[in-house]
Amino acid sequence: MTLLFIEQILNGVQLGVMLFLMAAGLTLVFGVMGLINLAHGSLYMVGAFAAAAVAASTGSFLLGVVASIVAAAVAGVLIEMLVIRRLYGRDHLDQVLATFALILIFSEGTRMVFGSFPLYLQIPPALAGPITLPGGIEYPLFRLTLIVIGLIVAFALYLLITKTRLGIQIQAGEEDREMISALGIDISKLYTFVFALGAALAGLSGALVGTLQSVEVGMGEPVLITAFVVIVIGGIGSIQGALIGAILVGLTQTLGAFLLPSLSITLFGSPDTGQVLSSMLIYILMALVLLFRPQGLMGVKT
Amino acid sequence: MIPERLYNGIIWLGLIAFGLLAYFIDEPYWLTLATRAMIFAIAGLGLNLVLGYGGMISFGHAAFFGIGGYAVGILATHAQTYDPIFAGFITLTGTQFMPYTWAIAVIAGGIGAALIGAISLRTQGAYFIMITLAFGQMFYYFAISWPAYGGEDGMSIYLRGGFPGANTLRPFDFFWVTFGVLTAVILLIRTLNASPFGLSLNAVRQTPERVETVGISPFRLRMTAFIISGMITALAGALFADLNKYVSPSMFSWTISGEIMIFVILGGVARLMGPVVGAIVFVTLEELLGGVSDHWHLYLGILLLLIVLFAKGGITGALTRKTQVQHG
Amino acid sequence: MAEPVLSVRNISKSFGAIHASKNVTLDVQPGEIHALIGPNGAGKSTLIKQIAGGMKPDTGSVHFLGQDVTALNTVQRARLGLGRSFQVSAVIPDFTVVENITLALHGREQSALQKLTNAFSKQSLIAEAKNHATRTKLNTRLNIRASALAHGERRRLEIAMALALKPKVFLLDEPMAGLGNEGAAELTTLLSDLKREAPILLVEHDMDAVFALADRISVLVYGEVIATGTTQEIRSNKAVKAAYLGEEDFA
């Protein structure tokens, strides 16, 4: 039981770091440009499809992962320059509608190219199979790799934002949009970069999670909505909040699905109540956070 | 450009004419399509109250649409099996009597809206959008994981609900029943919008701090609008369940929330007949383009993008001039 | 002295290291215009917010008509009769002049969540709305949208909406802001007329107006009231002079 429990915690962390890759881009784009981007899930999907296509034709998983990052970033730059750029000054309704329209276009476009059947990404042989962790826990090596990749990305993002010139500019953009133009920074380039960065992270997470599940049209939106839950919990605009929120949501989701059905069998003799409750758990968590801290855990009170 | 009142009248009379025409040239499929459009219009009218007049961008109205549908589905299932829903100090039995199922759907939608509103209306802007979207998704997962009423498969309603004096199984009769509901909802929205409540709601969209200083609580206004809106959209969901004789978790899906929003945007935000026109255009496009190409969502996406970027005000905005009322 | 209509007692409010209000005490007596002046950044807006209900003080209390209203929000204070106008006009841009004033009337009548009748069907209400428009010289602009009004007209619409509330005290936040000399003079006449209906707490930058109108003046500097007194007393107050040193508009 304990071993199983630790394994579930690791699964929760793994889900959490993947959610973080999605949430980081969303929250950065919102923080710097004030844009709510529903099409972020489409970039996740683009990454997954690019990885699946490239891995299938070259036989290399690594090339597939690189392709996911490149393809999502390129798609990000394209839509930023063609559409998103026109939305920065607009109200949230326009942003929601235009990016919703982008979802329709991306989903249907992908369906035209790849068809409606799911694609599958194979876990590379070097990462297949379980690994024995200290304490004798057998854990899938690939999932462990995802955790490591996620943490590396989180750390790299932290370095980028706190230690580099570009990061200072991004922070300045979050604080005060007028200030960055006063500093003589090319805002339009900065915005495109931030958007592409978010897109690349989404694409990467699409490829990695797509390997665990399947790659299909419509895969991005449920993740997008969960990422929204993450940033509402963490506080919109805060990268730190996104990380905390993501891990919290990942753990809640995984442990809820693990514990509640069996608890429900003990209490009511059927797993049904537990299953229903566990499917709603992260939203209940979000509601609780909003009740006690409407601005999110790391958000600044306005 | 024509006055908006004339335009509204033309749309309303046009629906009557269409119903009669389809009947006399014997096209029951047209009647069913028009009924579908009118049901979508009702859902859109509900959303327009909060989105258009109240300025609250709810991306979770599928929750209410689904609640209305499931209310009808659950009541019908119990009516068909003669198995009471609840037996205890009072006994609740299933029913397929439309006025009754509508009432339950509306009440359930109102309760759902009160719950979602109590949490989401404490926030504004981007938070509100994300939270309503998330709660909509919560209901979707709830419906999927709830085995008692079909889980992922949903529920079939073997017989459409009944309405006194109408044989709802005939498309012609169901068309008029739906038309009657639509007309009632349009009149309700018009009355609300012209009342002190509507005046304050329109004000709170623009300058909430002013509404506060004249002694009206923006939260109470928004909450009231949100609940009424949820009720109306639930009513649409109830009709939709009877139209399809089937309910499934997909009624709760986020794409439904997006589509309800499209009805409002296509037709014209904060215009009385905007959602009606939007729903008619949506169903027409779906039928015409969906018949020619499997990828009609692509065209829908492009159309939506063009409207947002270049034609705010939608179809109603392009065709009418807003009636400027002179008071006194 | 009579029982004050509005009294602010020992209010303090700080944001981190910044003390926006330091132990502020001030009252408004029946029938008077009490002006609150102070250089930019003195904490006037913060104080106004705490009086109107948009912000809670850290310590201290606000009393209105003998009742402690510190715990009440903006809506509740407005219902008790606190009529506020904004420094930056906060009228409803898409509404016409009549519609804006009617909104305030419905606020006063509390009809927004109670009646489903047409908002403009009651003749007496519309007549009253026009009356307020006439008093603020907006009678020729009744059906013009607020967004199309000139700046000065929008300032007067602010006042008209406060008037429509029939408040027990007016809280006017820089009503002269951005008005030319002529506009300011017109408004001065209107305000001196207004004080017969209810006392006014006037936050104002325009010193001519303040000295022409005010019965008493309080001077706020760095969150603190450094002096309260008649116009004569304030004019000759050394601390006030020092605080305003270099500010040309201090007469």
Task: Provide a short characterization of the protein structure.
Chain A is mostly helical. Chain A has helices at 2-33, 40-58, 61-82, 92-114, 141-163, 165-175, 177-182, 187-212, 220-234, 239-268, 272-292; strands at residues 130-133, 137-140.
What can you see in these coordinates?
The complex is a heterotrimer of chains A (302), B (328) and C (251). By secondary structure, chain A is mostly helical. Chain A has eleven helices and two strands, in the order ααααββααααααα. Chain A has helices at 2-33, 40-58, 61-82, 92-114, 141-163, 165-175, 177-182, 187-212, 220-234, 239-268, 272-292, and strands at 130-133, 137-140. In chain B, β2 (86-87) and β3 (91-92) form a beta hairpin. Chain C has two domains: 13-81 and 167-251, P-loop containing nucleotide triphosphate hydrolases (Rossmann fold); 91-165, no CATH class. Chain C has helices at residues 44-52, 74-80, 97-109, 123-135, 151-164, 181-194, 207-213, 231-235, 238-243; strands at residues 6-15, 18-28, 33-37, 59-64, 67-68, 82-85, 169-173, 200-203, 216-221, 224-229. At the B-C interface, α6, α7, α8 and α9 of B face α2, α3 and α4 of C.
- Helical content of chain C, roughly? 25-40%
Radius of gyration of chain C (Å)? 18 Å
Percent in strands of chain A: under 5%
Report the radius of gyration of chain A as a whole number of Å. 20 Å
Kindly give the count of domains of chain C. 2
**Content-based structural category of chain A:** mainly alpha
**Contiguous uncertain segments of 5+ residues of chain A:** none
- Specify the structural class of chain C: alpha/beta
Order of helices and strands of chain A: HHHHEEHHHHHHH
What's the β-strand tally of chain A? 2
Would you report the number of β strands of chain C? 10
| Oligomeric composition of the shown chains | heterotrimer
The average pLDDT of chain C is 90
The CATH topology assignment of the largest domain in chain C is: Rossmann fold
